[in-house]
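Supplementary Note 3. Input sequence used for the single-chain structure prediction.
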Amino acid sequence: MLNKSGFASLSLLSLLTLFSCTEEISSKKESDVSVVPRPAMAEFHKGYFKTQERDATASSAETNLDPSLRETLGREGYVLNVTKAGISIKAATDTGLFYGMQTVKQLTDSNGVRCAKITDYPRFEYRGIHLDVSRHFFSKEEIMKILDEMAYYKLNQFHLHLTDNGGWRLQIDSYPKLTELGSYRVLKDWDGWWKLDKRYFCTKDTPGAYGGYYTKDDIREIVWYAEERYINVIPEIEFPAHSDPVFVGYPELNCTDTQYGNGEFCPANEKVYDFAESVLAEVMELFPSKEIIIGGDEARKHAWHDCNACKALMEEEGMTSYDDLQCYMISRLQKFLKNEDLSSSSIVYSYRGEKGGIRAANRGLRTVMTPGEILYFDWYQASPKEEKKAMYGYSPLKKMFIFDPQPISPERAAFNESLVEGKKVAPDTVECIRPENMGNVIGVQGCAWTEYIPTEKHLEYMMFPRLLAIAEKGWSPEEGASCDDFKNRIGQQLAGLRSRDIQAYDLHDAPEVMIVAGEVTMDSENPSATVRYTLDG
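The predicted structure, written as discrete structure tokens, is reproduced below.
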């Protein structure tokens, strides 16, 4: 069984003696070509298109826009043909041509561009990466570096988590104290700061101050850089909870009028809605994204219980619970942003397991699958004895790869739920997505929460190569998916990541023990390693 942290328990491991060894790697086969994500249809041939320079492929490719291809390839698909005579890319849009060129880059080595014929298009329209810059702040240069890798692997949505309890990271002209007083704190170490009697923020010039924020010019540069790579940047501004840094400068916006100790907006205070609308108006001016995320999660509501204004509002509106009060606040913000209530135009992100996502899809809501128990980069990817401190869960590369974002059968939903719960789950105990609603799942997202990711190199170590599993889940067809094939391609991609100065985690020889649907599975991340075991101790 698995313990609460998601690791195999000692009672199981005591039955097994495991070891793995790396055998001699065989010579590369002609068909053994590493393209991530795996194309929908591909034929790889002997030979290369020769170029004078490794970077000359862009100018060497003949590109053709053919709007009629949209019917078969969609907006992002492409047809690529590489022969010894040249390179041809056809697509319905510039986006498709761009993705075709990313594949050309992956087919290029010191010999030239590998000959291939590829017809390719994504499985999902939304292929996302989330980055929390509140708990720890990361430079715009690091963000651009991640955007480069996202484009290379055909990811198209960058969810930027700009505000949370760790700090406010966005310049807002109408409320300057948000960054003057709420973007720096007195300790870098997350646990040390979190355990203080008061989690103090400070000004930039305070000795030992840690943090930072993005100016409006920084954000414009990031957005432009992303757009050049066909990536949409989605900002997140948290309401009503996770808002500690707001109240250091504007304590009147919570129920207790205090700088510290109450991290939630007062839903009965009209000044809160003035604040929200002003902030969101400036956010909309900076981000052309059609989506803005307004949080809504983990509101404790403790101060609301003792707030006379909250009680009066509940009575006036006929509310029966404090959950109704939270819905009231979120609904008002949505009306400001979209002039409508929660509807099929909204997107539901399923963070806590898959059940919420399944229910949302069956209700007709557009849904992004991002279950924390599977797709969080801040969870351990190897034994905690050998890794730096991470969150309590265990999500190795394989676990991310075998997750099914579109479980349209009880068996597939139960398989996913087994990954979430770490124990066997029976198909007759779970809800699945009804086949007629499968199109409501619009994609997947990997999330980097950064409580225990304090540096840029450590961020890369936790994100790569697991980011490639998100890319594969979002782009490649489910048919033909093979974990062994994926591991082999990832192994080849690591050299490229490191050549681009990405501090990627290495695929380990160590045995990897997982419990999937009640069965013990043993594997190794290294595709050239063999796992052997005994049952006699």
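The CA atoms of residues 96 and 102 lie 10 Å apart. The chain is about 35% helix and 20% strand.
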